[in-house]
Design brief:
Blueprint: E1 18-19, H1 24-27, H2 40-50, E2 54-63, E3 68-76, E4 80-85, E5 90-95, E6 98-103, E7 108-113, H3 120-123, H4 129-132, E8 133-136, E9 143-149, E10 158-165, E11 173-182, E12 187-197
Antiparallel strand pairs: 1-11, 2-3, 2-12, 3-4, 4-5, 5-6, 6-7, 8-9, 9-10, 10-11, 11-12
Amino acid sequence: MTRFPFPIPRTTALGLALCAVAAPALMHSVPALAQSRPASDLASVSKAIRGITTLSGNFTQTDRNGQVQNGKLLWKQPGKIRFDYGAGDLLIVADGSSLYMIDYQVAQVQRWPIRNSPLGALLDPSRDITRYGKIVDTGDPRIVSVEVRDPKHPEYGVINLVFTRKPSAPAGLELYGWVALDAQGNRTNIRLTDLNYRAPIADSAFRWRDPRGSRGPR
């Protein structure tokens, strides 16, 4: 079973309310040791996210059983993202307003407003991460981790975003990945690699073929 790469609201048909946890499993490959992060890092994280115009790269998704899935990531602000799994049977796309999961194996499409997921921390221009996020001590001065949640809507879940300091990245922070834990205790790690900033990405990359046939393609 494919785990989602981000928290999905509890109210969905799949019932996958994910919440974030501290990110030791994701960060184990980055050597550690330091003290707490300065408060200004939260503003830097916000600036880093808003500084991304386009981003492409690869992602590796690992669940608690060690099952690994790889795919391609495309991201274009405002509000567009595409997780393209290598097998071709699952696609996750945000088109600027809504987030879709398209399962071609069972010809099923599910949709949520972007704001109803912690993925809105990355995609929703109206979401102020300085209001909903808090810096988490990682024990490493090269790593900045921020936990994002909306206390008024716990059903939206929580996501723990992990950044590494990189001068060439927006605001000097590069998104390394994130960690999520679902309601059944299933941990999912997302690791991003080979990131490329500001390359042209056409809006057509965020369209998709509707597997339900009569409703036609998107």
